[in-house]
Amino acid sequence: MVQFGAVHMQVVSSIGMVAMALLAIFVRMRGTNKPISTVKIIMPPIGMSTGFLMFVAPAFRVPGMWGLLAFLVGLLLFSYPLIRSSQLELHDGQVFVKRSKSLAFVMLGLLALRVALHSYIEQYISIPQTGALFFLLAFGMLVPWRAAMLLRYRRLQRTVS
User: Fold this and answer.
1) Tens digits of per-residue pLDDT, 131-160?
2) Which residues are registered as beta bridge partners of 97?
3) Cα-flanking dihedrals φ and ψ of residue 90, to 5°?
4) DSSP-assigned states of every residue in 64-95
5) Phi, psi (degrees; rounded to nearest 5) at 17
6) pLDDT tens readout for residues 33-90
């Protein structure tokens, strides 16, 4: 049987995080070919909210202040570039996400920053706690981004009606 040490777990978790982030970037870039809807905008935060179940397990619990700070960093710092680089446009009465090279670069830049922060933070706290903090950061980043998209989407929909 293969034994995994802390270093192996750090490498595996970092590779997993990078793979999931690249998948998200790929899906976002392909999503520009199809019209969006209210459901497509709000489902990612709703789907991601199931991740809060991780906090049932004691290994994932973090002090409340750490969790709040991680959420606020996502909310106040990481969401802003996503909001600014995500534009919607109207074509034939349907709303599309405008293809943007800046969105890809913003997402890659945020990924690089998250990987660097992840590598630094996991030296001081357990891997599950690091994962929990970065989940809260990502959720804090996703909610305002999608809320801004929903507001823009509804504004464009009103112009069609």
Assistant:
1) 899 899 999 999 999 999 999 999 999 887
2) 88
3) -100, 125
4) HHHHHHHHHHIIIIIHHHHHHH--EEEETTEE
5) -65, -45
6) 789 999 999 999 999 999 999 999 999 999 999 999 999 999 999 899 989 988 899 9
d(CA 60, CA 39): 30
Our CA dihedral for 67, 63, 12, 145, rounded to 10 degrees, sits at: 0
19/134 Cα distance (integer angstroms): 15
Q: What is the 3-state secondary structure (H, E, C) of 103-146?
A: HHHHHHHHHHHHHHHHHHHCCCCCHHHHHHHHHHHHHHHHHHHH
Residue 120, pLDDT score? 85
Using an 8 Å Cβ cutoff, are 141 and 74 in contact? Answer: yes
Distances in Å between the alpha carbon of 105 and those of 17, 72, 83, 109, 114? 17, 22, 13, 6, 14
Predicted TM-score (pTM) of the model is: 0.80
**Amino acid 121: pLDDT:** 86
Tokens encoding 19: 């793979």
Which residue carries 């996991």 as its tokens?
Answer: 122
In three-state secondary structure terms, 4 is coil
Could you tell me which residues are beta bridge partners of residue 91?
94
